[in-house]
Amino acid sequence: MAPNDGFDHDILILGGGLVGSSLACALDGSAWRVAQVEASAAQEGAPGFDERKLALALASLNALQALDVLPRLATAPVPIRRIHVSRAGDFGAVRLAAADHGREAFGGVVLARELGQALESRVASASGLVRYRPATVLSVQPHADGPVVELQQAGETRRLRTRLLVAADGTRSMARDAFGIASDEHDYGQTLVICSLATDRAPDGTAYERFTDEGPVALLPMAGGHYGAICGVARADAARVLALGDSDYADYFQRRFGWRAGRVLRAGARSGYPIVRRVAERITAPRCVLMGNAAQTIHPIGAQGFNLGLRDALSLAEVLAGDDPGAPALLAAYAARRREDRERTLAFSDGMARATANGSFPMHVLRSLGLLALGHVPGLADPLVSGAMGFRGQVPALSRGRA
Ligand SMILES: Cc1cc2nc3c(=O)[nH]c(=O)nc-3n(C[C@H](O)[C@H](O)[C@H](O)COP(=O)(O)OP(=O)(O)OC[C@H]3O[C@@H](n4cnc5c(N)ncnc54)[C@H](O)[C@@H]3O)c2cc1C
Fold first, then answer.
1. Domain holding 389: CATH number?
2. Among residues 83, 85, 84, which one has the least CA distance to residue 103?
C-alpha cells in the first residue's frame, strides 16, 4: 500500500456495471488504492443500466441500504410480499408469503437503469477512487507479481500495474480469458422478452412465475400500478414475437400467462435478451478474482444474477485484509467463501430453467407433486425462502440488516 512501490493501484476493478460499481462502493473508505475502468461514459450509463426489472433479495436491499445506494434511487423498491409459482397444465402451485416467515417482504423490485444511476451517484462520491471512464481495456497481461492492464482513454494508451485485478467485465470477460480460466457455455435456445405491462388489477405485492412448455413467464410488481413482464420465447420465434404490435403482444402475453393477474390492458415497448449460461470453472487466478457475470452468467428466471454478484462483491470486500490484496491466502479465502452460495445458486437457477422446460410426462407428474409438497408441507419451502431472500451460504455482514 506504500506509494512508489511500482504499482499504480492496489485493486483495479475492470467493469463499472452493477457488480463492479457495487464493489467500488463496498471498498469506499478502505485504505486500499482502488481504481475502476469502464468503457461507457458516465452520462450514458453502463450497458446493463437498461429497462430490465430486477428483483432484489432482502439481503441485497439490506446491503444496498448500508452502502447508501438505496436512498439515491429515483423510485423506492416495490416490495415483493408474496411469490406465486405455477406451471401450465400442472395442478400444483407454490404460494409463499413473506409474513409466514416473519418478514414484511422477500425483497423488492427496481429498474436496472435507476439502480445504475443510484450506484453511479454513490460511486461518484467515493473518496480516493480513481476512475478511468470512458476507457477501454485493450489487453490484460497476467504476472505473478502484479497483472498489467493496457487501456485506451481519450486516444491515449496507458499501462497500469495492480496488486489485484477484479474482473467484473461481464459475460465475455477479457480478463477471464487472459488468465486462461475456461468457462462452460450452455445456450438455452430462448430469448427473454421484457416490457412494462398494465392489467385491470393493480399489483398487490405478488410476484408471479409461471412455467410453460414454451418457456417461463413472470410478472413483477412495479411502481405506478404497472408490472414488469418477462416472457421466455423459443429463439426461432423471437423475431416474430418482438415484431408484434402492442395489442397483439398484450393478447400473446395473456395467452401465455393466463388470467391470475387479471386482463392485460396495455404492453409497453419490448426488448429481447438471448439467454446463454456461462460459468467460469474457477473464480480466482494469481492476483485476479472474477465476480458477477464474468464469474457466472445465469438464466434470469430465478432472479439471482445480480443478487449473487453483489454477494461476490461484498464477500471480497470482507476478506480483504493485511497489506497485500492479491495474497494467495486472501484469494483462497474468497474462493472458499463463495463456494457454497455459488454452487447452490447455480444449481437452483439452472435446475429451474431446465426442469421446467422439459414437458415429458414423468417430469410433469413429479413437478406437480413437488410443487404441491412445497406449498403444503411445513419446512419444505424454507431453503427456497432463504434463497429468495438471499440468505445463502456465509451471509455477508452488510446483507444481514439491522437485528
Ligand atoms: C432480462 C434480465 C433480467 C434480469 N433480472 C434479474 C433479477 O431480477 N435479479 C437479479 O439479481 N439479476 C437479474 N438479472 C441479471 C443481472 O442483470 C446481471 O447479473 C448483472 O447485471 C451483471 O452485472 P455485471 O456488472 O456482473 O456485468 P455487466 O453488466 O455485463 O457489466 C460489465 C461491465 O464491464 C464493462 N466492460 C467490459 N469489457 C470492458 C473492457 N474491455 N474495457 C472497459 N470496460 C469493459 C462493460 O461496459 C460493462 O459495463 C437479469 C438479467 C437479464 C438479462
1. 3.50.50.60
2. 83
Strand pairing class (9-14; 34-37) = parallel
Q: Is residue 237 part of a domain?
A: no
Kindly give the pairing relationship between strand 107-111 and strand 78-80. antiparallel
Run of H or E residues at 284:
strand 284-285
pTM of full prediction above 0.70: yes
Pocket residues for ligand 1 (CB within 6 Å)?
15-20, 37-40, 46-48, 52, 54-55, 136-137, 168-170, 174, 192, 194, 273, 292-293, 300, 303-307, 309
- Its domain, for residue 152, covers 9-185+276-400
Q: Is residue 165 part of a domain?
A: yes
Q: How many domains does the chain have?
A: 1
Residue of 329, 321, 320 lying closest to 291 (CA atoms): 320
- Taking only the tens place, the pLDDT of each residue in 240-296 is 999 999 999 999 999 999 999 999 999 999 999 999 999 999 999 999 999 999 999
